[in-house]
Amino acid sequence: MYLAELHGKIPSSLEDKEDILTSNVFSFLKYSDRRVYLREFLKLLALEVSDDDLDGAEFQFWLNYDDKTQPDLIIVVGNYYLLIEAKHLSDFNVGGGKKAQLLREIEGGMNEAKSLGKEFYLIAVTSDYVYQSAKFKDVISLYPRHLKWINWHSISIMLLNLLEKYDSSLPNFLFTTDLYHLLAKKKLRSFRSFENLLGTGKVESFHTIFFAVDSARFRGQFIGFSESLSGLPEVIKPKGSIFYSRIYFNGLQFRFDVNQYDLYRKRGK
Amino acid sequence: MSHELVKQTKNALEFVQKLHFEISYLIKEVEGLLQQEEESFTIGKPSGYGVTARTSTGLEPINVENWMPKTFTVFFVPKSMNDANKGQTVTPITSDLKLLLLHIELTGKDLEEPRVIYGTINNISYKNKDYTKFEKMMWEFSYNTKKIFKTIPNVNYEDGTCSLQGKFNQEKLFSIKSSDDVVKKLVDPMLVLFREI
Asked: How many domains would you assign to chain B?
């Protein structure tokens, strides 16, 4: 499904369906290496579990409670009973005569969790860039300890961080790459601090990668990168500018006498 | 030496690419947040969904300097004030047109560190009668950056082709470190400036 979506091969009416998004993301957590991905996901929620707990985690998609309430997903992992309710372009159902969707789900979920002897949390996943307290006013007032919020963006950033950290040695690397690109395509990749640009440890730079102002002279001929760039300072972490400096070009002396040089290689030389 | 050069080339370009990606996500995040506001802002698309930047592929040194873009500008306007057609927007220049502008500057002669300039523009006029949409004016912010923004917070700019007024603030680009920062340091102040005109 990822590839069909990435290549625009499914109808646009389906692309924005939150059930498909939920399926894509949480199926990934179910089938990929749980010790990596499910663990990282739970860390986003400030939950820690053991390797055995991760391996034994149960995923129940669109389970029906007795009152016909249907949460998107239940994950039973370790000591936790996690009820996932995911939204993308719509809002949580506020009731319309009935009790609000989140309240019904919390009550149903708490009963289930209690019968299993687990700790209950409602995990609300939305497309908001930042936490919108108005959406959870009722839940917070009644069940403040049982609500955790994350956005889809934090999941895409989680994948990106793993991809950058482990590159192709990451388990399920290709699968992860596709999911990350899918989330980015759906505009569910948020801005991340620029500080991360320095965090990979891969980015190292000369002070300047261009001709040095002090020693450069206008030759008028390309002399090869190795020669022209030799003698530059040792590779260091980027501190200086990596962009062109106008100072360099202003400092050039355009006094090139054509007659002094053979511009073209002569046959036999 | 050759190995170092290969590594260096790769690292430098990779860094710039990552920087550009992060800037794109910053802009998209501002776009997404402004879209949710009551004005339902939409991003301007002068020639598609993109930024306006000054670039060149020329071989003269002054042009080579512009092979790599150093500024990126986008604007946002209430949905009711423009039309979209074939991936582009048309924002008619009318007397009541006001819009939001986001301008990112990575380097410049008098710039100590990258900055983002944001604010609102109004009282816009184009002296060439053939130009009736704001999209045509976007190049001004790439080519006349210094002149336009030299008097911020208040901008009162006029040249041979156009005139405009505006109120702007600026923020160090790298001081924006999270989605909360995007809201508090960019989007909220932008909306205050827009709504007080």
From this structure: 1
